[in-house]
Request: fold
Amino acid sequence: KKKKKRRAEEPSAPAPAVPAVPSPRPGRRASPLPWLVGLALVAGAVAWVVVGRDRTPEPAPGARSEPRKTEPTRASAPEAPPTAPPPTVSSPPPSASTDVVPAASASADPPVAPASADVVPDASASADVVPSESASAAVAPVAPLDPRQRAELRARVTEAIGKARWDDVASTMLELLDKDAAALGDAAGRELATEVMTALVRELHPRSDEVSRAIGLADGGPDVLYAFVERSGVAPTSRRAAELLRDPEVRARMSPAVAIAFDLREARCDKKVDLLPRAVAEGDQRAIASIDITVRPWVSRQNRVDEAVGALRERLHAAKSSAER
Reply:
């Protein structure tokens, strides 16, 4: 107890002093008023430039308004005064040749030709009447060419084919067909026409139809076209040849043998048998081939077909025998 009492009486050691941290002095807050005033001034200036620049003040009531002055532009030219219409002179009713009269102009123009001069056809109008090369090929030439000239034209066509000059091939072949009545009269001419037509259709030449039609309208041309149909009916050249053989102008130049052979292929299945008597009277080996290909598959009884083919063969044999005597 004495020790506790002594300790209580003894003065206690002072606690270490903690340095006081000075509190920060509150800063002075800037006023936003100057910024707002500046923004208002800037917005007002922009509004004045955009809106109020070209805006003129409205005049007071009762005040006299002055017209706004505009500067004349140099680019705009003064408009010409309207020309007065020509004075009308009493005259008899105009005829058909004076219906169109040119209006008088303010400047001194040279005299205009009367409207009747327009009736004269120009070169383009007269050119429409001139037949084209294909149409001229439809008219048979007067006489065959000299063999030397024919050989020269055929040589030019062959040379152009070898050099793939298709424009020269078309023009030279049309020239040959137009000048020579016997251009397709022999095997060499028909072979050349076949080669030309095949090449032009294969190359999609723009004059292939013209040349093909000229071949069909030439003497012996339908025989060349039918050879394409007989060879292959699905090739582009064969389809084009079949279209030409259906043409009335080309059909008018067909031989009876080519006509019946083609009709046997074109006729409906139930009408093919009706053409057999005509095939016996007018056909040749091509008619026999058409019968075997297009008639036999559609006939149940072959007796009538066999009789027609037998009679046709006998006629052809007799014609061949008489020609050899």
